[in-house]
Amino acid sequence: MKYTPENFKLKDGRICKIREIQVKDAAETAEYLKTIMGESDFLNSYPEEITITVEEEAKMIKGFNESDNTLMIVVEMDGRLIANGTITRLRKQKMRHRGNVALAVLKEFWNLGIGKKLLQVLEDYAKEWGLSQLELDYFSGNERGRVLYEKCGFIQVGETPNAYILKDGTRYNNIKMVKSI
Questions:
Q1: In the β-sheet with 133-139, what is the strand arrangement from edge to edge?
Q2: The whole model's pTM is what?
Q3: How does pLDDT run across 57-102, given as a tens digit for each residue?
Q4: Containing H/E element for 137?
Q5: Which of 22, 35, 55, 135 is the 20 to 30 Å CA partner of 173?
């Protein structure tokens, strides 16, 4: 185990647990991914594109847990997965000081401090790895995300135009942000 579980209080007073993902979470994770992909246009996939089997998800989780370069954490409330976050350290020697972070929170739990907590935990873990830079990408229309990332110290360093085109033709740029730690 790479991460010691901890409880934390949401803005509304409820208590959640943040912990490393486990193989036993595979079935729930597959369903969770389909749910979050349908709740926001600002994620990389549509729900119908999530076709991973429970067995494939379990294998992926096992790989995360055995990896020296990836940590995936989840937030649970009353035994239900409500959010996740991942940090992946780049493997090449010249880039091993960098880590990519990503997170997602079920819509009913937005604005309760979960995203900020996930970023704090991932940053703390990055420091344990000896990283000096965190990086993330987000959709240009995701103002809630942008505000959170800026509050946490990330700055915009790049933009790819029309990186995402939705089914209805809506286009979003990919925004690249970086934080020195």
A1: 6-9, 15-20, 70-77, 80-89, 98-105, 133-139, 171-180, 155-165
A2: 0.94
A3: 999 999 999 999 999 999 999 999 999 999 999 999 999 999 999 9
A4: strand 133-139
A5: 35
